[in-house]
Request: fold
Amino acid sequence: MAALKVGDHAPDFELAGVVGDRRKTFKLSDYRGKTIVLVFYVLDWSPV
Amino acid sequence: MPAYQADQARFAELDAQVVGISPDSPYSHIAWQKKDVGRLDYPLLCDFWPHGAVADAYGVLRREAPPLAGISERAIFIVDRDGKIAFSKLYDLGQQPPNEDLFEALRKMQAMVG
Reply:
């Protein structure tokens, strides 16, 4: 499956998450009007 | 991920919010910060269940080894104010994506918005 491309609609999602050691849920569409840099990374503690 | 922490002020100047996402649990994210990378002031999201569903929706879930099925590609998307993808790039798994790529893209976006 190919990664989404420039101009595509960014699929909305809601995920559990943390900021520091505090839990915080994040919903992409709540940030409409803001610019979001969405960084997908391999894993915490990834050797690669 | 510490590289984004170090450049938080520059992202803020460009009016952009960094959000990290990996197929890990919140327990892992918290422990990883404490024991390894240090506190990160931007959100780390848990693409944990259904496993990798958001990575899959963005086309960056790795389904096959090596090195491991179920991990996410190293990929960055900038989502603009209208919810559209304004930047999309895949990086080698072992590569730290250069933040300059992002600053350049964000500057161009700002110039277009005016």
Observations:
- Chain B has five helices and four strands.
